[in-house]
UniProtKB/TrEMBL annotation:
Listed name of the protein: phenylalanine--tRNA ligase
Catalytic activity: tRNA(Phe) + L-phenylalanine + ATP = L-phenylalanyl-tRNA(Phe) + AMP + diphosphate + H(+)
Record SMART domains: FDX-ACB
Gene3D superfamilies xref list: Bira Bifunctional Protein, Domain 2, Ferrodoxin-fold anticodon-binding domain
Length: 594
């Protein structure tokens, strides 16, 4: 296609020859086509296009970066109307214009065409980028410098290949029904977990890399230990007190003892209790709502989404339903609120091992267990990447609980001896932050006439899969885009290749006064950010704080960075998320916005 008429174009250089060659080759050549209104020229009966190419777009003459961004924005929106679902849009730009790290040298962001952010506004993600090689195209000549019949430099030019993104999801309240204490109960899933509950990553028909890692570990360990899989259904909800666990890190679920709350009751009252409450709530039958127990109300049963599989492992021991020397294995998703960091996950798949050994043999057993885990992981990683993996056992006294995947759920009866299983890609011998994939602890039990030491070990299967397959962002494990799972056919582990390159990031600040006399709940602050953005906030940094000397009031200022790993995320969408975030923290944390 061409923007000008055939008469205007035919008199320029070799255009007439190119038109003739195209038509002789069977191509349809269309003139006077506005690239920002493609649907006006291509009727529905012609079908949609599999590929749209736009080589070196430009508004003409001395148009600056802003006008050319606008041209690209309108072009991408136009392309979205005539492109197949699996189609591609190819845009070639001169070196530096795109504003991505692929440009060498790279322009400052404000002085580039910001092509990835512009395309995101129309629902496209950058899936590939490679050099534009004019010499490989027979008869190609670049022309049109400042709307003249002059050539322009294409050295270092890049071809950007865009594909459609899956849409941003708007999550509705979700009711989950489970079997609990021999009866069926329903509860509202915390909104931040709606897209992560009951995903079935570990089920038999799954080819998710998390399951493949689990199956490989289980098969290898069964060669070295008597092994028993605990394959009965473990309830998502748990009841009872956990020593050492901060209430603000738990997703509380409240069920009425008289009846299961209705969907409407859940939506109106329970959602706040699930997401934001750090105190006891119950159902007020007169007001048909959920209120603070401290305000006076009949106390309901309290449950929470399991933060660890430890209570189920302990139940096995307390019931005596285990064989000394046998490695019992449990696995499933666990949940906890946490700060937003690259390796902190509000849900991950835990693989939990428990084994009872004679007192005095625990250290050698731990070392044997770790050695077998090492061997299995070495084999997996070397098969996938061809590189060696360094795994070591370190005393974990220097690690914070959050760095150890929130293993604070270990009861106080467990010993203070604690080891961290670390994986490193390099051979420096240092355990870099985020490379701790598991923890091992011990506890002493007297069972009959013998005193046994129970060894507990827990592994984060999600983090293991990430390290083995080269997945840099934990959110990618939960993507609904089939381009992720298609890279692991039949559960085969491979190095992951991202289908969304150089995603744009957007920064917003928020400042507010903290309520007088109250401790600011930073975990709840981060949880609200996760909820309103659908996990699009990748970083929250405290950039300023001060306290008024006259009143004692405290002000905080945080910087939020928004970025998606798998979806198109536009500036407008982020602005709407930021406005909603301000509203939510004002309502639920009772801060005064500045």
């Amino acid at each position: 296609t061409c923007c000008e008429s055939e008469e205007e174009v035919s008199g320029r250089g070799r255009a007439a020859e190119s038109i003739r060659r195209l038509r002789e080759g069977g191509a349809e050549v269309v003139f006077s086509v506005d690239c920002t209104k493609l649907k006006d020229y291509f009727l529905a009966e012609k079908g949609q296009f599999d590929c749209i190419y736009f080589n070196f777009p430009h508004c003409g003459r001395k148009a600056g970066v802003v006008k050319n961004r606008e041209l690209l924005a309108r072009f991408f929106h136009s392309s979205a109307e005539v492109l197949t679902d699996e189609g591609e849009v190819h845009v070639a730009l001169c070196n530096g214009q795109g504003g991505t790290p692929a440009d060498q040298p790279r322009r400052e962001w404000h002085n580039s065409w910001q092509i990835v952010a512009v395309a995101a506004g129309a629902g496209f993600i950058l899936s590939n980028v490679h050099p534009f090689k004019a010499e490989t195209i027979h008869g190609y000549k670049c022309t049109g410098y400042r709307s003249q019949d002059k050539s322009f430099g294409v050295e270092g030019a890049l071809n950007h290949i865009f594909t459609r993104s899956t849409p941003l999801l708007c999550f509705k309240p979700m009711i989950c029904e489970i079997e609990l204490e021999s009866r069926k109960v329903s509860f509202q899933v915390p909104q931040v977990l709606v897209d992560k509950i009951n995903r079935g990553f570990l089920e038999l028909n799954s080819n998710h890399p998390v399951r493949t890692v689990k199956e490989k570990l289980t098969a290898d360990l069964s060669q070295a230990f008597p092994l028993q899989n605990i394959d009965y259904c473990l309830s998502l909800l748990h009841q009872g007190h956990l020593n050492g666990v901060c209430h603000s890190n738990i997703f509380w679920i409240i069920l009425s003892p008289e009846e299961t709350p209705s969907t409407e009751e859940m939506s109106n009252g329970l959602a706040n209790a699930v997401l934001f409450s750090h105190v006891d709530f119950c159902r007020d039958t007169d007001k048909n709502s959920w209120v603070n127990v401290q305000e006076g109300c009949h106390v309901s049963k309290q449950y929470y989404l399991r933060p660890s599989l430890l209570p189920y492992a302990q139940a096995i021991i307390q019931r005596g339903a285990f064989l000394p020397g046998t490695l019992h294995v449990l696995s499933g998703p666990v949940f906890r609120k946490c700060l937003i960091t690259p390796y902190s996950m509000p849900v991950f798949h835990e693989m939990f091992f428990v084994c009872a050994v004679n007192r005095g043999a625990e250290n050698s057993y731990i070392q044997m267990l770790v050695n077998n885990i090492k061997t299995s992981m070495h084999s997996l990683y070397q098969t996938v990447s061809g590189f060696k993996l360094n795994i070591n056992l370190q005393e974990a006294a220097s690690f914070e609980t959050t760095e150890l995947n929130d293993f604070a759920a270990f009861e106080s009866q467990l010993s203070t001896i604690q080891y961290c299983i670390c994986m490193e890609i390099d051979t420096s011998g240092s355990c870099e932050k985020g490379s701790c994939v598991g923890i091992i602890r011990t506890a002493h039990y007297e069972l009959g006439s013998s005193e046994l030491v129970v060894v507990f070990a827990s592994l984060n299967l999600d983090l293991l899969a990430m390290l083995i397959c080269g997945i840099s962002d934990w959110r990618m494990l939960w993507t609904s885009d089939m381009r992720f799972l298609s890279q692991f056919p039949r559960g085969e582990l491979r190095l992951f290749k991202s289908f969304s390159l150089y995603p744009p990031s957007y920064v917003h600040d928020v400042s507010f006064w903290v309520p007088d006399g109250e401790q600011f709940d930073e975990v709840a602050f981060h949880t609200i950010a996760r909820q309103v953005s659908g996990e699009m906030v990748v970083s929250i940094q405290l950039i300023d704080s001060f306290q008024q000397s006259e009143t004692g009031r405290k002000s905080l200022c945080y910087r939020l960075t928004f970025q998606s790993c798998d979806k198109a995320l536009s500036r407008q969408e982020v602005a709407e998320m930021q406005l909603l975030f301000r509203k939510e923290i004002n309502q639920h944390l009772r801060v005064t916005l500045r």
